[in-house]
Amino acid sequence: SHSSVVLTEVHGKVGLIRINRPERMNALNDAVVDAIGAALDTFEADDAIGAIVITGNEKAFAAGADIGAMAEFDYQHAYRTDYITRNWERVKTCRKPIIAAVAGYALGGGCELAMMCDFIIAADNAKFGQPEIKLGILPGAGGTQRLPRAVGKAKAMDMCLTARFMDAEEAERAGLVSRIVPVDRLLDEALSAAQTIASYSLPVVMMVKECVNRAFESSLAEGLLFERRVFHAAFALEDQKEGMKAFLEKRPPQFKNR
Ligand code: HXC
After folding, report:
1. What is the structure's pLDDT at 104?
2. Catalytic residue among 132, 140, 171, 190
3. Does the keyword Lyase feature in the UniProt annotation (predicted)?
4. Is this prediction's ipTM beyond 0.90?
5. What band does 3 get if pLDDT is binned at 50, 70 and 90?
6. Cβ(187) to ligand 1 under 6 A?
7. Going by CA atoms, what residue is nearest to atom 25 of ligand 1?
8. Measured in Å, how far apart are the chain's first and last C-alpha atoms?
C-alpha cells in the first residue's frame, strides 16, 4: 500500500514501514509521523503480523525534523501544534516489537525515532547524532532522555552538547545498536530478525517486550516482581504446553498465538 511519505509492505509475518522523503533526507513532519502511526494501527490490528520493521533508505533513516517547516515557529505555535511529537508516542505504545533498520543518517528526531523502537540494527554507514544544538534548539523527542539510558551520561552529554555524530562501530560499542551489517544486507538482516521473532508465540513476544520496557520505568525489585508475575502467567498459554512438548518430542513447535 502507498501513501507518499511512507510506504508499507508485508513480508511474511512482518510489516515493513519505509520513510519515503528521499529529496529531504527523510526529514520528519506530521504527515510522516501520522503515516507511521497509521501503518502501526494496521499492523497491530492484523493477527498475521508478528513484528514490524521501520527503515529509511541507504542515505538516511531520517535526518531529523523538517527544519524548513520549523524555522519560523514561535513559542505558541510550537506549544499548540506539538509539531512532530503530538502523535510521537504511537511508536512506544505499539505492543508488537519494532526493529529500526538504520542506514545513513539518524539525526535529531531521526535518532529519537530509532531509539523509540525496541532495538536498532545498523548498516555499516549509519551515523547517529543529536545536532539540534547547532540550530539553536535542543532534542525534543527523547534525545536527552533515551540516549543517556542507551549509551550512558558521558557519550549522551558529548553528543547533545557538541553535536558530533557517532558511527556504527561506536554506536554498537556503546550499546545504542544491537548489530552492524553491510549496508546492502541491512533490510534482509532486519526482516530476518523480525521473521524470527514473528515465528514465536505472539503473546510471549509481547510479554517479553513489556517486561524489558518495565526495566526502564521501575526499580529493580519492582521490575523483577513484574517479570515473575508475567513469567507465571505464561504457564496459562497453550503455546507454553506446545513449546515444551515440542522440545521433548524433538520437533519444531507449532505456536497458535494463544
Ligand atoms: C529539512 C533537510 C533536513 C532536515 C536534510 N535536508 N536534512 N531538510 N530538514 N532535517 C535537506 C537539505 O536541506 C537538502 O535540501 C537535502 O535534504 C539533501 O541534504 P544535503 O544537506 O544536501 O546532504 P548532505 O550534504 O549529504 O548532508 C546530509 C546531512 C545534512 C548531514 C544529513 O543534510 C544535515 O545536517 N541535515 C540536518 C540535520 C539536523 O540538523 N537534524 C536535526 C533537525 S532538528 P536541498 O533543497 O538543498 O537539496 C530535530 C528536532 C527534533 O530533529 C525534535 C522533535 C520535536
Report:
1. 98
2. 132
3. yes
4. yes
5. low
6. no
7. 25
8. 29
